[in-house]
């Protein structure tokens, strides 16, 4: 016999689904990577406009060879946390390569970008802190700030006057923080890192920037917008996007990295990244300076797609990077358009609330350096036929 309490204990699950509604309910789908800008679902190849494999490195033979060699030498897993016996020579080599590439004193590895942000931020701020976060910052940044127990406010997206007003209103004696992405993952626009650094300097704030969607794609040698910036205190990057691997890292001063080795739970209490993954990431970091032609091509085709959309009166927001959102409005419309594209052999996933605000459901169109003009033509043609 089930008690009333037993029946009710899972009621919150159904309530959550009902609140979200069928058009905003998520599910998992299986895809397999193919050569070039394609994924396969079952027996159907799909032209990829959804993944974050910006430079096509996830299938690069050089990364695969590096991962294979590491697996033969070190095995498939690190076996322990870094502070026990899971810190292999490969981890040290990658951290040294990242510090050199970023022109920083030190770097530390994390299992994911979410883990890095969620566990680094609580080591920097506490109840006696005020953290100001861009309104469109990634969920992992918000999670980390909230976990710190700091007071926090959102400033209007890329509104530096509003940010300064909030800094001016901060109580005396609190530790201040400014937190943002450099390239915003759902809108494809950038922040002004110099403006943020100016404000951080003026008000004595810790400047923490997530460079995930700029690394490999923007900046000198693909170094992003924050990693090499001398006035950014803490910069986070990831390997799961342009670097074609998995995991993440932070670059900062040597003293901060030593502090995190002693205080950051996301580093202390988790198994180290698997050696094959580390080796692939190291190969990618070593390749990035050589990939300027790929970066230039990527930016050119992204600009071409934005212009094609705007010429047709389609709203792609403030995008200025390889991420081009096609704003549709309601979730049902975005899903219908994504389904029409998929029927025509194109994968462009609909992004819906709560990932984006209500009324701004979109197709998040993502360019890759191996996209060619004919791929854009195919995309725009199907969009023109299926626009709802």
From TrEMBL:
GO molecular function, one term: pyridoxal phosphate binding
Name of the protein in question: 8-amino-7-oxononanoate synthase
Keyword Cell membrane: no
Entry keyword set: Acyltransferase, Pyridoxal phosphate, Transferase
Domain of life: Bacteria
GO biological process, one term: biotin biosynthetic process
Top-level EC class as recorded in UniProt: transferase
Species of provenance: Synechococcus elongatus (strain ATCC 33912 / PCC 7942 / FACHB-805)
EC nos: 2.3.1.47
